[in-house]
Design a protein that fits this description.
The chain is α/β, with parallel strands linked by helices. The protein has 3 domains: 114 residues, Aldolase class I (TIM Barrel, Alpha-Beta Barrel), CATH 3.20.20.70; 52 residues; 134 residues, Double Stranded RNA Binding Domain. The strands form 4 sheets. The protein has a 4-stranded parallel beta sheet with strand order 1-2-3-4, covered by helices on one side. Helix 5 links the parallel strand 3 and strand 4. It is globular and about 70 Å long.
Length: 414
């Protein structure tokens, strides 16, 4: 890739670390694709970086090629062959990809052999098959401290909430059976498992759900619940809201309670995740959706939007109503929204829908990505008891983000 000889790459390494060292005392060096490099050359590169002043050396498994046993041996052998790592207190780090599903296993083996920094990602998101999963590796270290003899300073009770927040903001859903933060991570269906758990949770659980923030307070609010009960429930879920955020969240809660009746803690967690800026006066808003469809009939949708005004341009908020047909109800709604906004070239990319809770009155959460006129992609999120309405909200949310960031870019260029 670099089109250079080993000697040239060594010199580039030294110059790069020395240049960085001129600006800061803390320099991390990371040789790309280390696990497919000739090991002797890797040792030379790392030794040169340490000699040039690197304070952290990161060994990346860039393409997820490593196997735990070999990777652990490499980490141990690098330290043995380069005594300066220990003498100078250089931190050994690892960055593992998950192409073979071994990112967490490789990272743990590295820790067992002397690594003291692990580069991770919430929900394991990342290039291709992803990176080492934050929640999985930190709970493995905490749960198997007897074997690893190490710990970290993370507040693991925030893991589940952080996982849901990242999922909502990125549009990447978390599989139900994902370790630690998946919906089924602490669920038991088998009869013998249920019997054992009822007798003692430790029978079939190696972690407490409370330790990862997944216990789930059994908070149930209704349409007659007032502000005090609502904010008490929010506090018990661990959220802190500003006055403005609280007003917006309470309004969402009242709207949901009017439609659903009872609102669970899971519902609350979803409506507390921000979907856009707090200044909603600058956002186009979905007022209503009407759809019709039947066997052999072309689905039709009519949407009413409230378009934001622009005080600087002297325009006032106004309402528009547009009807459209589509291949399905969601497609018809998206076409109608594009027509109302006069943005015909915007296209829907990915579309994901999931139920927040069980039952016929489950709250639907829809995640979409759209490509705007320039080909840039934006994520949108919508929540409603109606899947079609949630889809329309998510689509409009993505278009609002597109317009907002495009406007910021134009302002920056000006």
């Amino acid at each position: 890739m670099l089109q250079a000889s080993e000697d040239e790459i060594l010199q580039q390494t030294i110059r790069a670390v020395e240049m960085a060292k001129a600006y800061t005392d803390d320099v991390e060096f990371s040789p790309q694709d280390a696990t497919r490099t000739d090991f002797a050359f890797l040792v030379d590169i790392v030794a040169a970086a340490v000699e040039a002043g690197a304070t952290t050396v990161n060994i990346p498994d860039t393409v997820g090629y490593a196997i735990p046993y070999d990777f652990g041996n490499w980490i141990a052998e690098i330290q043995r062959r380069i005594p300066a790592i220990a003498e100078r207190g250089v931190v050994l780090s690892v960055h593992c990809h998950n192409d073979l599903g071994l990112a967490v296993a490789n990272s743990l083996e590295a820790v067992r052999n002397g690594a003291r920094q692990i580069e991770v990602a919430v929900n394991g998101i990342g290039e291709r098959a992803g990176n080492c999963s934050l929640e999985e590796v930190v709970m493995a270290i905490r749960t198997r401290a007897d074997l690893l003899g190490r710990d970290h300073g993370l507040d693991t009770r925030e893991l589940t909430r952080t996982s849901r927040l990242v999922s909502s903001l990125t549009g990447y859903s978390v599989q139900k059976n994902k370790a630690v933060v998946g919906e089924n991570a602490f669920a038991h269906e088998s009869g013998i498992h249920q019997h054992g758990v009822l007798a003692d949770r430790l029978t079939y659980e190696i972690m407490r759900s409370e330790d990862v923030g997944a216990a789930g307070s059994q908070i149930v609010l209704g349409k007659h619940s007032g502000r005090h009960a609502f904010f008490k429930a929010v506090e018990e879920l661990g959220h802190t809201l500003t006055d403005e955020e609280g007003a917006i969240a309470f309004q969402r809660f009242k709207e949901l309670a009017d439609r659903k009746g009872l609102v669970s803690s899971e519902d609350l967690e979803v409506i507390l995740v921000p979907t856009g800026p707090s200044d909603t006066s600058r956002e186009d808003r979905l007022v209503s959706i009407r759809v019709s469809s039947g066997t052999g009939e072309t689905p039709q949708a009519e949407v009413e939007l409230e378009l934001h005004g622009d005080a600087e341009a002297g325009t006032q908020p106004r309402r528009v109503r547009v009807a459209s047909e589509g291949d399905g109800m969601v497609d018809a709604v998206c076409k109608a929204i594009r027509g109302a906004l006069e943005r015909p070239d915007v296209r829907l990319g990915t579309y994901q829908v999931g139920a927040v809770t069980g039952g016929l009155d489950a709250l639907a959460e829809v995640m979409v990505t759209v490509a705007d006129e320039q080909g840039a992609t934006f994520t949108g999120r919508g929540v409603s008891t109606d899947v079609v309405e949630a889809s329309g909200i998510a689509y409009l949310d993505a278009l609002n983000r597109s317009r907002r960031l495009t406007a910021r870019g134009a302002e920056f260029r000006a």
